[in-house]
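Inputs:
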Amino acid sequence: MTPRVVFPNRVLPYLLVAPQLAITLVFFYWPAGQALYQSMLKEDPFGLRSKFVWFANFEKVLSDPAYMNSIKVTTVFSLATAIVAMSVALLLAVMADKVVRGKGIYRTLMIWPYAVAPAIAGMLFLFMFNPSIGTLAVLLRKAGFAWDPLLNGTDAMMLVVTAAAWKQISYNFLFFVAGLQAIPKTLIEAAAIDGAGETKRFWTIIFPLLAPTTFFLLVINTTYAFFDTFGIIHAVTGGGPGKSTETLVYKVYNDGFVNLILGDSAAQSVILMVIVIALTAVQFRYVEKKVHYG
Amino acid sequence: MIGSSSTRTFIAHAVLLLGILIVAFPIYYTFVASTHTLQTILRPPLPLLPGGEFWNNYSEALTGGVNRIGGVGVDVLLLNTTVMALGIAVGKICISILSAYAIVFFRFPLRMVFFWLIFITLMLPVEVRILPTYKVMVDLGLIDTYAGLIVPLIASATATLLFRQFFMTIPGELVEAARVDGAGPWRFFFDILLPLSRTNIAALFVILFIYGWTQYLWPLLVTNHNDMNTIVIALRKMVSFADADTQWHLVMVTAMLAIVPPILVVVAMQRWFVRGLVESEK
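Outputs:
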């Protein structure tokens, strides 16, 4: 690539990056540094003095059964949300790719949930499914299910997964539709001429060629389930019942703001940072190269 | 083109309709609930069709009903949320387009250092540094201010990366021509670059507006007073499933008011939004 033609100014570029850089330093690097520092401090019970304890907070957090539980909860929650949201969206996108008439209308109706705040999505699902006044809860009970998300941990998990996945369907749908449109029609026609039926064409041609999209969405959905669903958990279950829906992000918030265990909360923040860095690295390493087969 | 039989098309339409039913149902159900009396809502199952209380509920909610149960009027809530969403969208676009402009169209010492400093913030979402960021807000006196709601959320790498990517596709000849014609960097920016970036800006605007409107954790942290609440937070405070006193019909009206504006934005700007979303992330 030839060197870009640029403007010769010396001072102007610094002025141009200054606003973003200033905000980034004040609201990103300074707090992130604080989190790192704080994660190695231990405060006395009255919060008057603190001493430097190296990695003791991390040892404490990582050996805490409640934290292990939270890791398990987060894993189950993220995987379930990603799988549900992606499979529903893929099915709908494949169908939308087939129809000719009404494509635009389907898409318009399909993108609504994208605009709904996760916390509101959570509250709507709780409203529909809460045991005392939720219509769907009443129907479930009439059908013989002992449904109670306020007391039963598994029910609560199903409820937050449903709400989280519902909200993410639009996003995945749009990407799968774009992915499907990018597949050369000639390949599919060639397979059809060779006698491959619709199901076979899907699994041997379309699905493998969609792999980059699918993989990309898997990373995005996991990140979404990790971080953006705080509102759903906070508004719907508050981590309960018991600790059955306490995800990692919710626990950081709860330990820091509600229980005021600063060192632990900071150590958890640092662990989360490591997770995000890993996720981002995976995203860039593999998604940039694109997972594909030919 | 492979001809598809009418049965297959029929199945496709059926699946899609079912999908839309699932996708739209929660929103429709909220609307239905917002048109019934409190008594009807408290005796499930709720009818599938809207009731006759639309005007009563909405006018009650708008004229003080929300104020009574949420401590602050719905106009204030909508204003706060709109200011926050617009502030984030406009602010982020402004600072990102400027820094991307500097990084692509100028050569200066530390250029790549700045780029990486901005890039790394991709990996530091607010959720992972809640407490220290909150402390910075307290130290700067930004609790319960619009600046506190907006400024910390406008510095992130995504928009900058998107503009950078787009700027790199602009041929150098254009810059050269502009310079030969005597245009300085500002002239070039306003007369050439901005018009070329129109679609990208529109797309980003929708995405960021939604992002701002749907924020939860951040407004929860930096607002204490009810009159600085966003509508999402206020809604959360109104709802209590244990409490028999929750005025569900008014809560549902508030929920509709929180849901409808961003949906209108997305649907109205669908073309840019879809393109921006799919292109910016790839």
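Remarks. Chain A touches chain B through 101 residues (CB under 8 Å). The longest strand of chain A covers residues 41-43.
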